[in-house]
Write a structure and sequence with these properties.
Structural class: alpha+beta
CATH architecture of the largest domain: Alpha-Beta Complex
Number of helices: 9
Largest sheet: 5 strands, antiparallel
Length: 287
C-alpha cells in the first residue's frame, strides 16, 4: 500500500522529511535528497538507534529503513510536542533547572575516551575553514585562538551532533525527545553542550524573532543551570573553556552558508562576544 504524504516538514539540508500515513499509522519519513547523502543519513540513523534513553530523555522509535529509488530512508515515530525553542515562552522558571539537568545528565559521558588524533582532526577542520574564509580578515583573531588551542581536551564520546533547541521536542507530559541527529567530523558530548549554548547564550534559534525580557530571563536561567552542571564535574572549568572554543568554531562554520546581511551581522556579533569572553576568562558570563 502506498504511503499518503500528509505534509512536508522542515529538515536540514541533504534530507527530505515528510509526515506520512499508512492505514491508521502516522509516522515521520526521512530520506536522502540525493544518492550522495545516503551514507551520511545511514550514520544519522545509527546515532539515533544507539542513543540510550535516560533521565526522561528519548528518541523517536525507528519503524523501518531501506531504499526507494536508490535513496536511503527511514521511518520513525511521530512525536507530538513543541520544540524547546517554541516552549521557551511558555515554560515556568521553576521547571527550567530540572529540565536542563535531565538534558545534561543524558548527554554527559563520565567515561569518555581520550582521542589521540583530536588535535589533528580539529586542526584540519580549522585549517580548511581558514582557507575558505581567508578573505574575512576580521576573523583572523578568532582563527589565531582556535589554531593555538589544545583540542586534545575534547572528550571522545557519543553525541547528537546538532543539539539545538529546535532539535529537542517536549511533550505534554514533559518528556524530552531528541530529533534530527547529525553526523560530525568528531563526536563528543562537549559538542552537544556547545550547540545548546549557541541557543542559550548567543540566542541563535531566536535571531530572527523579537527580543522579549520574558524569554531572555528563561534562557539566562537555563544557561546558568547548564554551566553549573558543567562546573560540578572533574576539571569543569577547563571543560567549560573548551566548550566555548568549540562554540566559537561552530559559529565560524556557519559563515560559508550565510547569504543574508542579518545573519552575517549576527555571526559577527557572536564572534566578537565569544572573543571577549574567552580573552577575559568570562566564558559562561553575559557581557
Amino acid at each position: 500500500m502506498e504511503n499518503k504524504v500528509i505534509k512536508q516538514l522542515n529538515g536540514h539540508s541533504g534530507c527530505v522529511v515528510t509526515l506520512e500515513k499508512q492505514r491508521n499509522q502516522v509516522f515521520v519519513s526521512k530520506s536522502a535528497a540525493d544518492a550522495m547523502y545516503n551514507y551520511r543519513l545511514k550514520k544519522q540513523l545509527k546515532k539515533q538507534q544507539h542513543f540510550v534513553s535516560a533521565y526522561n530523555v528519548y528518541t523517536p522509535e525507528i519503524f523501518d529503513c531501506g531504499y526507494k529509488n536508490n535513496l536511503f530512508f527511514f521511518n520513525m515515530e511521530y512525536i507530538q510536542g513543541k520544540t524547546l525553542a517554541e516552549y521557551t515562552n511558555d515554560i515556568s522558571i521553576s521547571e527550567i533547572p530540572n529540565l536542563i539537568t535531565c538534558l545534561f545528565n543524558c548527554l554527559y559521558f563520565e567515561n569518555s575516551k581520550i582521542e589521540p588524533r583530536a588535535n589533528e582532526l580539529f586542526g584540519k577542520k580549522i585549517y580548511d575553514l581558514h582557507q575558505q574564509l581567508c578573505s574575512f580578515k576580521y576573523l583572523q583573531p578568532a582563527f589565531s585562538i582556535l589554531e593555538s588551542f589544545d583540542w586534545s581536551l575534547v572528550d571522545k564520546s557519543f553525541c547528537h551532533g546538532d543539539l539545538t533547541l529546535e532539535n529537542i521536542l517536549i511533550t505534554h507530559d514533559k518528556k524530552l525527545y531528541l530529533i534530527d541527529f547529525l553526523d560530525s567530523f568528531y563526536n563528543s558530548w562537549m559538542i552537544d553542550i556547545a550547540k545548546l549554548l549557541q541557543d542559550l547564550d548567543l540566542k541563535w534559534a531566536f535571531r530572527n524573532t523579537e527580543v522579549t525580557s520574558n524569554r531572555d530571563l528563561r534562557l539566562q536561567v537555563a544557561k546558568d543551570t547548564l554551566i553549573e552542571e558543567i562546573l560540578k564535574i572533574d576539571n569543569g572549568t577547563q571543560k567549560l573553556e573548551t566548550i566555548y572554543h568549540i562554540l566559537l568554531l561552530n559559529i565560524i562554520r556557519i559563515y560559508p552558508y550565510t547569504k543574508d546581511k542579518m545573519t552575517f551581522d549576527f555571526l559577527n556579533w557572536s564572534v566578537s562576544n565569544l572573543l571577549e569572553k574567552i580573552n577575559k576568562n568570562k566564558v559562561g558570563v553575559v557581557v
